[in-house]
Amino acid sequence: MSSVSIFSFALWIRWWPPCRRSRCETLSLMAAEGNTLLVRRYRDDDHDAVWALHNLALDSVGAHGGNGPWDDDLHSIPSVYIDAAGEFLVGLVEGDIVAIGALRQSSPGQGEIKRMRVHPRFQRRGFGREILLRLENRARELGYETLHLDTTVGQTAAQALYRRHGYTETRRGQLGPFEVILFAKSIRPRSS
Hints:
The chain is of the alpha+beta class. The protein has six helices and eight strands, in the order ααββααβββαβαββ. It has a single domain (3-147), classed as Gcn5-related N-acetyltransferase (GNAT) (Aminopeptidase), CATH 3.40.630.30.
């Protein structure tokens, strides 16, 4: 990243309204294996890149059941996630979206991690972990006590990520043509 890009980035952070501490912390740089990941909140002009990454990532692990109404949330991200006590983050490398992840409220005090995707060429660099940890922090800020998520049995890397970060399998089920594993994690603050 050039010094001009870093300078522009620093100016952008100072300008980014409303730059409350929690939202500014969500926007950050992470260096991994020669790539720098910029994590920020979704913007409307990200739609096409998010849609393409969603499809590419699912295709690459054999977990794409085709597009349909189950994908409608990706065409209404602000109203489904951001404006509804949730979050939608994108991770960029050299201006390209290579990672995404979302949080939405599923019931009072409970959130659901959704749409975790990393471009196949950028996997195994910690980018999925970075998105997951930032979503968990946002969930705590929003007052959630537990998080849950699901992934297909074929997505072994995703399963390993979730288990490494304290998610436990709660049950298995069927979602369309896929067998899925449901995970949950308590994020209640520890009492001192």
